[in-house]
Amino acid sequence: VCALGGLHGHGQTNVDELPRRRRQGVVEKYHAYLKRISNHPGVPGGIVATHARADQWSPCSMAWPALHALGVRNEKKGRGPVKLCLLLTSCGRGGHDYEGC
Questions:
Q1: How far apart are CA 38 and CA 47, in angstroms?
Q2: Is the CB of residue 96 less than 8 Å from the CB of residue 55?
Q3: Is the alpha carbon torsion for 90, 96, 98, 100 positive or negative?
Q4: In whole angstroms, what is the distance from residue 26 CA to residue 9 CA?
Q5: pLDDT tens by residue, 17-33
Q6: In which band, very low, low, confident or very high, does the pLDDT at 13 lie, cut at 50, 70 and 90?
Q7: Which helix (H) or strand (E) holds 76?
Q8: 64: closest CA among 44, 38, 48, 84?
Q9: Strands, DSSP E only, in 5-95?
Q10: Is the confidence at residue 99, as pLDDT, over 60?
Q11: What is the arrangement of strands in the sheet containing 2-4, beginning at the earlier edge strand?
C-alpha cells in the first residue's frame, strides 16, 4: 500500500486568477501531468490519498481528476483502487491547510 501525501502537477485547469505573466502553458502542464500519472506502473495493495476539502492551492476540482487517473491505472494493473481520506475540517491557516492535522 502506498500512502499519498503530496500530489503536485505544476499546472491547473483555470488561469483566471493567475497573473497574466504566469498563464502561458499552465493548462497544458496540467493535462500533460494527468497523462503522465495515467501511465504509472501501479502500486501493489492500492493507494491511500489524503486531501483537505479546504485546500486553497489544490482545490478538489483539480485533485479529483489526478486521483481518478491514478486509481484507474492502478486497477487496470490489478493493484487496487485509490482510497481517499478527505479532511473535512480546517487544520491550519490557509494554503494546503494540513498544518496541525
A1: 14
A2: yes
A3: negative
A4: 10
A5: 889 998 999 999 989 98
A6: confident
A7: helix 60-76
A8: 84
A9: 47-52, 82-87
A10: no
A11: 2-4, 47-52, 82-87
Q: Give the type of residue at 12.
A: Q
Q: With bands split at pLDDT 50, 70 and 90, how would you rate the model's confidence at 55?
A: confident
**Would you state the cell numbers that stand for residue 36, as one nine-digit string?**
503522465
Q: Return the amino acid letter for 52.
A: A
Task: Pull the grid cell for residue 58.
Answer: 489544490
Neighbours of 43 (CB within 10 A): 19
Rg (CA), the chain: 14
- Return the H-helix or E-strand segment holding 28: helix 26-37
**Can you give the pTM of this predicted structure?**
0.78
